[in-house]
Task: structure prediction
Amino acid sequence: MTLQETTKSDSSADIARTNMWRGIALMSVAFLLYSLSDLVAKVLTEDFHAVQIGWTRQLGLLSGVVFLLFRRGLAVFHTQRPGLQFTRGIIASTSPVLFTLAVAHISLADAVAVSFVAPFLVVIFGALLLNEHISRKQFFGILGAFIGTLIIVRPGLGVFQFGTIFVLLAATAFALRQVISRMVAGIDRTSTTVAYAGTVSVLVLSFILPFFWKTPETIYHYGLFFLVALTAGFGEFFIIRALDITFAVVLAPLQYTMIIWSIIWGWLVFADLPDGWTLIGTAIIIISGILTSGVMRFLKPNELKTKLKRRTR
Result:
């Protein structure tokens, strides 16, 4: 390799490294916005049904689809697996409703903490539905997440709350969506999968919305609904942009920042603080998730440099 080629390669790696940090910043802001959306959704549950709140949130996510349409046109809806895409969209309509039902009964921090079992459910469903191999590291990660969840919910000790069931159902729905994403990966574009999820979920919730609709009576409530849609929409936009410029494996652990924000919002708005056992269980789940995500190996200096150079070729 000549000096000029070496200089060009190093320069490209520097650009990719800059994009990586930009992606991390965008993803961090996205999860901050999602946590705000969860907060406002919890406030709205005092007066409105979860279906109406979930529909509003998905309407905000639909703005991400509008962004994709602006960039790529109707071609974004071209799919070779329409059945899987529609199924994924239908499942996507259940997650926000189930999670909103959960936060109506339990604290934000508890709901978010339990929802972190979703990545481990993805591994389990991947093995069951796609015949994927579960490595020893993944097995211990699943075991750690299970133990962490048990510590948080503590069934049989008078601590378990009904809302936890809704969180687990929402996490299951999320995991199934991710498995379907793997089924269509390499066949359809990621943008196509995002477009179908946003569009189909809004359509599904729109069909049942009239049965749960309650017209807001104050500017305050209209403002809260607008804020739910706005934060969800911009959160989706920032995630799309982050994934465009940064490796997903680097960004994945940032989802755990949501527990920090949830604790802060719960304390400031509802005077809720998780107890010591909940914090211990959450820590176990987070550590298990980070250790099994592959990000630690990815961020080793030599590994990172190699990946960055490959990305710029």
Summary: Residues 3-312 form one domain.
